[in-house]
Design goal:
Elements: H1 2-33, H2 39-52, H3 57-68, H4 79-88, H5 99-104, H6 108-140, E1 142-143, H7 148-160, E2 167-171, E3 178-180, E4 186-190, H8 199-215, H9 217-230, H10 235-257, H11 263-276, H12 293-301, H13 311-334, E5 339-342, H14 348-357, E6 376-377, E7 387-390, H15 398-402, E8 407-415, E9 421-428, H16 434-443, E10 446-448, E11 450-452, E12 455-467
Parallel strand pairs: 2-4, 6-12
Antiparallel strand pairs: 1-2, 3-4, 5-12, 7-10, 8-9, 8-12, 11-12
Helix pairs in contact: 1-2, 2-10, 3-13, 7-8, 8-10, 8-11, 9-10
């Protein structure tokens, strides 16, 4: 059981990372197609790719499976589901391990858990040390309620449509101007920098910070930091973080320049800030000097008009987003499973015999017992049906593969109180050597056991195994 559970966890993690990688690759292709459009669109796409790591498709698939239980027909099959399942879940639970692997298995979970925990704590610890630097600057800062900086900030807030004023704090630390906080953000402004800036430069920097607040960039950065902490071992999440910072700063640059500020003034403001201050140590504290500075200055000075996102592209992005969320649910709704655990018999003769022996709504003992007389039941009345949680695809025999043979093989089994099939036997033959393959596949199935009075019990079921070639 430990072996099966650990293999299932590994397969689930591998499938989740694979699905998130496919999603991020799709986003990357979209950002290339939208490279001439506004940066805020690309930033939102990268943020969606980041948040996908926190939303496994398996949760959506389970939702679809739950909704489909009462409606789907076990004798239909959807090609769409199989294509999607092959692409989105390439990793399957392994049922065979060598003796050496089995002997090392008890050590593997604690070793991997310790490695992950060590990396998680290291990432959190590093960020905590950096946060302390900013927190120390905030504690040493004093609020400022008047002055040319505050007056300019209030004008820019009204222009940006902000309803709540941003608190302005004067810091004695040489950190760059930056927005601190998410719910009630404050602007930390290094003391002495105002003397180095003309009014036009000062307003430009303040306009940049106001855009960070309006766009809620600190919240977006904090959400991605959660992804980085959990999946610290996966390089893709760190690459996504760099893309988020790059497009975030580019989006703010575009918003500032759209206010009518001269590109030369804006570039000078950034360079003067860099000469006087040090960069913010955390991505969730939005400053003015983030991303690749050289590329930003070149882009600002050579900036052309950004293309607005047209209706066709908006509809395309909406369709892709809807497909990403609804696709797994729809796939589960239309899926007829490779193996569907059925409490009803496979043919009318079996149904008649079963109904003759079983009283309406009652509990019927099976004629067969196993494992030293363990009692088995039929599903119905107070006995719930076992739920299929893992079903590997059946393999094709060489003869059936060459003949491109298809069909349904029905086997009977006793699903024991641990959710494992026992006494698997063929009920409806298919030929071409597929009966043996069906039995081998069903023996690897895993169920949530049937329940009687909140206790797991063994039940007899018929299972359909579909052999289809696509």
């Amino acid at each position: 059981m430990i072996l099966d559970n650990w293999s299932a966890v590994g397969a689930a993690l591998g499938n989740h990372l694979w699905q998130s990688t496919i999603f991020a690759t799709t986003v990357w292709i979209l950002t290339l197609a939208l490279r001439k459009n506004e940066a805020r669109v690309r930033h939102r796409l990268w943020l969606a790719a980041s948040l996908k790591f926190l939303v496994p498709f398996s949760a959506l698939i389970s939702l679809g499976s739950h909704l489909a239980r009462q409606n789907r027909s076990p004798q239909t099959q959807a090609v769409f589901y199989f294509v999607m399942e092959r692409v989105s879940q390439p990793f399957q639970q392994s049922s065979g391990f060598g003796a050496l692997a089995a002997s090392l298995l008890p050590l593997l979970p604690p070793i991997l858990a310790a490695l992950w925990l060590g990396g998680f704590v290291s990432v959190i610890g590093l960020w905590w040390l950096r946060w302390r630097r900013v927190a120390a600057a905030k504690r040493a800062a004093v609020p400022l309620s008047q002055g040319r900086e505050v007056d300019a900030l209030r004008r820019l807030e009204r222009s940006a449509g902000l309803r709540r004023p941003i608190a302005f704090w004067l810091s004695q630390k040489p950190l760059e101007p930056g927005v601190f906080g998410i719910v009630r953000p404050i602007l930390l402004w290094p003391a002495g920098i105002s003397e180095q800036l003309q009014d036009a430069h000062l307003e430009t920097i303040l306009a940049h910070e106001v855009q960070h607040v309006r766009r809620r960039d600190n919240l977006a950065a904090a959400m991605h930091m959660v992804v980085e902490a959990i999946f610290w071992f996966y390089p893709l999440v760190w690459w996504l973080g760099a893309r988020l910072v790059e497009e975030r700063e580019r989006a703010c640059d575009e918003e500032v320049l759209q206010l009518g500020i001269a590109a030369q003034i804006y570039a000078e403001s950034i360079l003067k800030t860099c000469a006087y201050c040090v960069e913010s140590p955390l991505a969730c504290i939005s400053g003015v000097t983030g991303a690749d500075l050289k590329r930003r200055i070149i882009r600002i000075m050579t900036r052309g008009p950004e293309e607005k996102l047209g209706l066709a592209r908006k509809l395309l992005l909406a369709a892709i987003g809807l497909a990403a969320v609804a696709g797994p649910v729809v796939a589960s709704l239309v899926k007829a499973p490779l193996a569907s655990a059925q409490s009803s018999p496979a043919n009318s003769q079996d149904a008649a015999a079963d109904s003759a022996d079983k009283p309406m709504g009652g509990i019927q003992d099976s004629a067969a017992n196993f494992a030293g007389g363990t009692q088995t039941y039929h599903v119905g009345g107070e006995v719930s049906a076992p739920k299929l949680v893992y079903a590997p695809d059946p393999e094709y025999s060489n003869k059936a593969r060459r003949a491109n043979y298809q069909g349904v093989c029905v086997v009977s089994a006793i699903v024991d109180a641990k959710g494992k099939p026992q006494h698997v036997q063929v009920v409806r033959h298919l030929g071409m050597g597929l009966e043996k393959k069906a039995v081998e596949a069903v023996k690897q199935y895993r169920f949530e056991p049937a329940m009687l009075h909140d206790k797991p019990v063994a039940v007899t079921v018929n299972i359909e195994v579909n052999f289809r070639r696509y």
